[in-house]
Amino acid sequence: MDAYFHLRSTPGLTERGARERMLDAMTTTDWIIDIALVLIVFRQMREERLTARTILLPLAIIGWAASTYLHDIPTAGNDLVLAAAGAGAGVLFGLFGGFLTRVRVAEGHVRIRASLGAAALWVISMGFRLAFAVWTSHASGAAHVGRFSVHHDITSSQAWVVALILMAFGEVVVRLGTIVVRGQLAMARAGREKAPVRREGAYV
Question: Residue 137 sits in which domain range?
């Protein structure tokens, strides 16, 4: 018998046949969330102003997902290690994505444009959640993840949910934070360049 656990059921591992699925079929909401996050960065491949909407929209999407799926954070075994690994991966993706996004000041406004590298990184990282869910919805994927969990002392199915959500959450927040900070630095630099040069003895 292969180890099996259900990501949307009660925590804990149980024994079931390998033919059982680890995950329910993805809901329409799951697809909408992931596709919406992917489309956001594609939209940014065309230069646009950095506005409150640019920041709040992805935060609202990932915030809703977190409130829906993060009901509790398991702490037994290596569950927290898995969650930390997911969050750490998200932070790294977010940093690289933020620095690969082009930021400049034009006409007094911060303008951003996702480079090809930033878009590719975003699609890969966000697509990983979709791919993982699809893979584990089949018997072979469920069996592999079940065995991995048993061998590495991951005791709760919720740990996988937490790791994947924290990965997405960390990437979204850190990427946006990096872009905002770079925008503020660019604005400050533009302000210094436009400031009149003060000459000794001159009135200002």
Answer: 2-18+27-188
Q: How far apart are CA 123 and CA 39, in angstroms?
A: 9
Q: CA 54, 59, 65, 68 torsion: positive or negative? A: negative
Looking at residue 19, its pLDDT comes to 33
Is 193 inside a domain boundary? Answer: no
Does residue 93 sit within a domain?
yes
pTM equals 0.77
**109, 52 Cβ separation under 8 angstroms:** no
The angle subtended at Cα 87 by Cα 45 and Cα 11, nearest 5°, is: 125
Task: Give me the residue label for tokens 């660019």.
Answer: 186
User: Could you tell me if residue 114 is inside a domain?
Assistant: yes
Give residue 9's pLDDT: 38
Predicted confidence (pLDDT) per residue in 189-200, tens digit:
888 877 665 554
Is the CB of residue 38 less than 8 Å from the CB of residue 47?
Answer: no
Examine residue 141 and state whether it is found in any structural domain, yes or no: yes
Q: How many H helices and E strands in the chain?
A: 6, 5
For the chain, 204 residues long, the average pLDDT of each consecutive 10-residue run is 38 39 50 79 86 90 83 82 93 94 92 92 85 78 82 82 88 95 92 64 38
Backbone angles phi, psi at 202, to 5 degrees: -85, 150
Residue 55 makes CB contacts below 8 A (sequence gap 6+) with 176, 180
Q: Are 87 and 167 in contact (CB under 8 A)?
A: yes
